[in-house]
Amino acid sequence: MPDYTIKSIDDLYRRVPKKNPNCWKDINGKKVPSSFAFKTKPDEDGLSVNIAVLSSFQETVIFSDLFGVAKFPASIPIEEGYECRQDKKTDNPAHALIVGDTRPIAKKLAGASVEIFE
Amino acid sequence: MKSDTVVFKFPQSSNEPLRFYVTGSTQSDYINLNGFSKSYRAEASGLHAIIYYQLIDTIKGFSVLRKNWDSNNADPISKNAILTAIDTLNYLNRRELLSNGIAINIFPMRDGGIQFEFDSDELCGELEINNKSELTFFLFDEEGSIIKEQKLYELSELLTILEDVVYA
Hints:
The structure holds two protein chains of two kinds. In chain A, 14% of the residues lie in helices and 33% in strands. Chain A has helices at residues 57-61, 75-79, 106-112, and strands spanning 11-17, 24-27, 30-33, 46-51, 67-73, 84-86, 95-99, 114-116. The longest helix of chain B has 18 residues, at 44-61. The two termini of chain B are 30 Å apart. Chain A binds chain B through residues 15-17, 20-21, 23, 25, 27, 34-37, 39-42, 44, 48, 62-63, 67, 104-105, 107-112, and chain B through 58, 61-62, 65, 69-75, 103, 105, 107-111, 115, 117, 119, 124, 126, 138, 140, 143-146.
């Protein structure tokens, strides 16, 4: 049972590879993650993210030499009609899911993302 | 103009890692790259070659990605997708589309496919190559909403889409 309700004002974190392979591109001087990182696979119930207010860069990135962390507003999937719900794991209470097939909004999520640092 | 032919050195079997080589030396191009500066005006063919070989290396690198390479349970990249991505890159290179103002980035996909991302002032598009080598092109508006989705059966259809958008 979720004990945190994700609201539009929340931010969400998604871990994106930055080395072998580098999945960030430079668009007009801004680092933007590839949209693939926000696309669910057919066998997935939703997209795994961390709730920013319950997590941190370090807890999300795990290996900072291999991954970057993209931050985007929960308002984007919520306004597109997606359910965002906490999906606590034993080792990660900040874990959440954007429920459903996120491929139609992947480009929006990528475009709205900013890279965060420690 | 150097040859841009990519050939497979050995027949592929399902368990064999991909091995390939690119015909033509890259040496002169990398000498040019080392001397690159704001005042340097590369010949179109040289710039094409630099971008081409960088992108070929990128695609080749996908062949070593193992299960969970993104730490979110991504699949290994299929050989079919890699072969089709190389075909696609060769096609774009032959038509000198690699340095004509459209930024092209190539990424692995979580389901074993590969995607090309096209960015310019006039264009925001993606070409998805799935693990069965099927091609789908997506065109986006400025906010990232899909405004066109089209399955491609010939690479010439990609050229038509790019030209339609850029020269509209």
